[in-house]
Amino acid sequence: MVSANNKSNRKSSLYVTFVALFAIFLIILGLAGYYAVKREIKNNIKSLLQLNLSANLTALKSWINDKKLSAETIASEPQVLQAIYSIMEIPKLPNFSDTQIEKKLKESYELKLLRKRLRVVCKLHDFLGFVLLNEKGLQVDALFHDPIGEKRLFEQSSFFQLSLQGKTIVSHPFISTIDLPDKKNNWLPNQPTMFVSTPIKSATGKIIGVLSFRIRPEKGFSKIMQVSRFGKSGETYVFNKNGMMLTESRFNEQLKHLKLIPGNIDSRSILEVKIQVPAKLAKTNSSATNSRLTLLAESAIQGDTKENLEGYLNYRGVLVVGAWTWLTDFDFGIGTEIEYQEAFSLLRTLLIIFFLFFILLVIAFLIVFNYRNNQIKIKNEIAEIILQ
Predict the structure, then answer these.
(1) How many CA atoms lie less than 13 Å away from 56 in the CB half-sphere?
(2) What is the largest CA-CA distance in the chain?
(3) By C-alpha distance, which of 160, 155, 153, 154 is closest to 210?
(4) Which tens digit of pLDDT belongs to each residue from 99-117?
(5) pLDDT range class, residue 336, cuts 50, 70, 90
């Protein structure tokens, strides 16, 4: 009887050992498969981020070149040039005060002629307006209520100085010094604006001024970044060397909730949001303590073209993966991101399935083991009865 029990115990031990070894084999196999799938998913995410970044870069450069070409084409029209030459002579009138020059400019026939011509051109090329500056940065004509006879734009943006060097430039967005119409044609202060500017040359080739056309950042520049959004959380945005966002965020409502922008219905993220980890999270995140900027912004501003698939906190305080680059020619960076959870959702699903399968296997083993033990116990009891 003792021998039969020992034999049964040995069989049970062998059975347990076999199942344990099989379970370990499955765990090793599962983990190997998990990390293989993770590598493949990472490669796919990397390709997706780089493809999206490249597509946005191509679209953005194409838009910029199109605006430059439009400005150069308009500025080369004989009628436009003739009116500009005449207007440029007015500030040179001798013995005229600044007030008299301003009055003369506003009353000049050439100014009215140029406005009439460029009003049609601006509508055709989707420009909001224009400003004409002489070689000293003095505004000598404009479509809207831009202060003629002043140098506000000269002091507000660097596009004028660059165009004086002979370059056609698309400026970064900046806050307008005058009221501008919104989408509903309501004239509002502190609206974001940007310009495409091109030099005006005399018959001898000397640069005598700059013709600049006003652009709505949210209509063209920012809109391009919204075309190739992917997934529920993917977004691409542009920022300057100070880390300030130059395009509209996809998550304005969340930014309002985080109080990173005002809670007004017309609040925007352009020139309002800095690409940095929110202060509350920065205190607990060592990588954000040394530099308030996010990993993406900090790396791009240093001139890097990289991607990160391990995850980092973005300007909303959300864990994301992303890719980025810095465009030296345009002096701004561009980055594309997607939330970590969404990017690796398939991997998480596979991991859950693996654990469920393993748990079911363990349950099945326990059921079979318990059933086998019961059978052995019954056989032993029957053998004991027979022996009695």
Answers:
(1) 31
(2) 137
(3) 160
(4) 777 777 777 788 888 888 8
(5) very high
- Which of 358, 341, 298 is CA-nearest to residue 31? 358
Q: Name the residue among 233, 276, 227, 231 with its Cα closest to residue 251.
A: 233
Burial bucket for residue 206 (CB in 10 Å: 0-12, 13-18, 19+): exposed
Q: What is the pTM of this model?
A: 0.79
CB 271 within 8 A of CB 173: yes
What pLDDT is attached to residue 210?
93
3-class secondary-structure state, position 373: helix
Residue 43 to residue 351: CA distance in whole angstroms: 18
Q: Quick one: tokens of 201?
A: 């040359």
The per-residue pLDDT for range 190-207, each reduced to its tens digit, is 889 999 999 999 888 899
Strands 187-188, 180-181: pairing kind: antiparallel
List the end-to-end C-alpha distance of the chain, in Å, as a whole number.
11
Contact status, residue 255 vs residue 305, Cβ threshold 8 Å: no
> For residue 129, what is the enclosing H or E element?
strand 129-134
Angle formed at CA 312 by CA 49 and CA 352, multiple of 5 degrees: 80
Q: Which two tokens stand for residue 164?
A: 């004086």
Q: In the structure encoding, which two tokens stand for residue 235, read together?
A: 């977004």
* Residue written as token pair 């490669």: 43
Handedness of CA 157, 163, 165, 168 (dihedral sign): positive
Strand partners, 306: 324
Q: Which region among 6-15, 78-87, 116-125, 238-247 has the lowest average model confidence (pLDDT)?
A: 6-15
Q: Which residues contact 211 (CB under 8 A, 6 or more apart)?
A: 71, 74, 75, 80, 84, 130, 132, 197, 198, 200
With contact defined as beta carbons under 8 Å apart, do 3 and 342 qualify?
no
User: Helices 78-89 and 109-124: crossing angle, nearest 10°?
Assistant: 140
Q: What are phi and psi of 309, to 5 degrees?
A: -110, 0
Of 46, 235, 251, 327, whose CA–CA distance to 260 is shortest?
A: 251
Contact 284, 268 (CB under 8 A): no
What is the H or E stretch that residue 387 is in? helix 345-387
